[in-house]
Design brief:
Elements: E1 7-9, E2 22-23, H1 28-33, H2 36-49, H3 51-59, H4 69-96, H5 98-121, H6 126-154, H7 160-186, H8 196-211, H9 238-250, H10 259-280, H11 283-308, H12 315-341, H13 361-389, H14 393-419, H15 424-449, H16 460-474
Antiparallel strand pairs: 1-2
Length: 475
């Protein structure tokens, strides 16, 4: 521990005591820099400028191109490799540290955006977009695992919903800014694809995001607001870390009930962006839809964050309240979307796309707004449930890896089905069924697993480490 952090009280010399040492936080500008909220905000801006710009492109439908097939294939390759890298990225994060894992994770986003700049100049460069998507899948798995581990480690139990909401607001502002760039660049466009200047602007913003992880504080120097220290990642052997992956599942198998919830968290984007936004609207309307979608995600994350961290009920009660909110908005939005989806197919999509001045447009843009609310609430609920299961940094890294791996697998399937040009209605119904399954399976997990506070009996990896240390002492 750095000498400037003075320990105020400790029973740490008693290894069998579960009491936690409390430290005095640094003062002045140093205190501001090392404040957990400052680090979460910096983390949010990493995702603002990297995944946020990616979302801005994806939300346009087809990456802003006329033909959405290249984008669908690239996203399928992206999430296929993402599913593999994310599953094991938790162990890598524990080995090399969250800060360097985050830095490595940003690199693929700059490459991916540059591939769309290339295809806008050279239309035959579709292979570059697909290859870049596959490489981004590898790096994105590391970025999101590091993000989940850091965000959930910096906050206390009482702050998890608020911190997740703050992060989600900043992150989605990236997509809002990217969408605003696209809308401004293409507001008077008569084509159905974005211009080269849009890709250049988004690429510059992404490169700025690559530099931020190098400016962030080392996690071991951060003191939480309650005076407890962020637990440093352990650095055991690779064999021990992969064993930890197994221990995390065996000691807490209820996490498996969240897998359908995780899977649905990106699967639904295929229909929203390619089969609704790209299918029905011109580039001006697509850009505006994209903008309001990500703006509404900011509102949605704040709304559910307030519910999950409110003082009116115990944590179990808040978990069920959050689940109920998701249930209601899920079925309202999908019944609404079904009303529109039954009016068109791939074969019957009109060549003249809907514009913002068409009389039927206002009702259609409201669906995108409500989808944004649902998407944000869904992700906040996923992260909040993960955070409620553990306070151990290393276990959170593994759970975060599970989330992003299963999420990516679902997304890869969704984008591939769209690349194969399955009927829009088939993709929509499969989306509706998956989100319903996510809610059904997560309910018993909340009932069986969510307590009002996390206890040491839930921390399988910490118990394992204590047993290993005890064996070493005896030897």
């Amino acid at each position: 521990m750095a000498s400037s952090f003075e320990e105020k009280g400790s029973d740490s010399n008693n290894q069998d005591n579960d009491s936690v040492s409390v430290y005095e936080r640094p003062k002045g500008l140093r205190g501001v820099y090392y404040h957990p909220l400052t680090q979460v905000i910096m983390l949010g801006f990493v995702c603002f400028l990297c995944p946020g710009m990616f979302n801005a492109l994806t939300g346009l439908g087809g990456g802003g191109q006329v033909d959405a097939t290249t984008s669908a294939n690239a996203n399928s390759a992206l999430y296929a490799t993402y599913a593999v890298s994310a599953f094991f990225s938790g162990t890598v994060c524990n080995k090399i540290g969250a800060k360097f894992t985050l830095l490595f994770g940003t690199l693929g986003y700059a490459l991916y955006v540059s591939s769309y700049l290339a295809i806008s100049i050279h239309p035959g460069a579709g292979w570059f977009v697909t290859t870049s998507g596959a490489l981004l899948g590898v790096t994105a798995g590391f970025l999101w695992t590091a993000e989940g581990s850091l965000m959930l480690s910096y906050c206390t139990e009482a702050q998890k919903g608020v911190y997740i909401s703050i992060f989600w607001c900043i992150f989605n502002l990236g997509a809002v800014v990217g969408s605003s760039v696209s809308l401004g660049q293409n507001f008077h466009s008569t084509t159905n694809s974005v211009g080269t200047g849009t890709y250049v602007g988004i690429l510059v913003l992404t490169l700025v995001g690559v530099t931020i992880p190098m400016l962030m504080a080392d996690p071991n120097k951060v003191i939480r607001t309650d005076g407890t220290r962020v637990v440093m990642p352990r650095h055991p052997s690779w064999k021990s870390e992969f064993h930890g992956l197994w221990v995390a599942i065996v000691t807490d198998p209820t996490v498996l009930l969240l897998f359908p919830l995780f899977c649905a968290s990106a699967y639904f984007y295929t229909w929203q962006f390619n089969d609704y936004n790209a299918a029905l609207f011109d580039i001006r309307a697509r850009s505006l839809n994209n903008l309001v979608h990500w703006l509404s995600q900011i509102v949605g994350s704040v709304m559910l964050g307030l519910v999950l961290d409110s003082k009116w009920a115990r944590r179990r009660g808040r978990a069920f309240a959050g689940w109920t909110v998701l249930l209601v908005i899920t079925f309202v939005v999908h019944i609404w979307a079904y009303y529109y989806q039954r009016t068109y197919t791939r074969a019957s999509v009109p060549s003249h796309k809907m514009d913002i001045y068409d009389p039927q447009y206002p009702a259609h843009i409201w669906l995108m707004i409500f989808y944004g609310l649902l998407d944000a609430m869904w992700h906040v609920m996923c992260f909040w449930l993960i955070g409620a299961m553990s306070n151990d940094t290393n276990k959170l890294a593994i759970y975060s890896g599970f989330f992003h791996s299963i999420q990516a697998a679902g997304s890869a399937i969704g984008w591939r089905l769209d690349g194969l040009k399955l009927p829009y209605m088939t993709i929509f119904i499969s989306t509706w069924c998956l989100v319903a399954a996510g809610l059904v399976f997560s309910f018993p997990m909340i009932y069986l697993r969510i307590r009002d506070t996390t206890v040491i009996q839930d921390e399988g990896l910490i118990i394992r480490d204590r047993q290993v240390n005890d064996m070493k002492v005896k030897e």
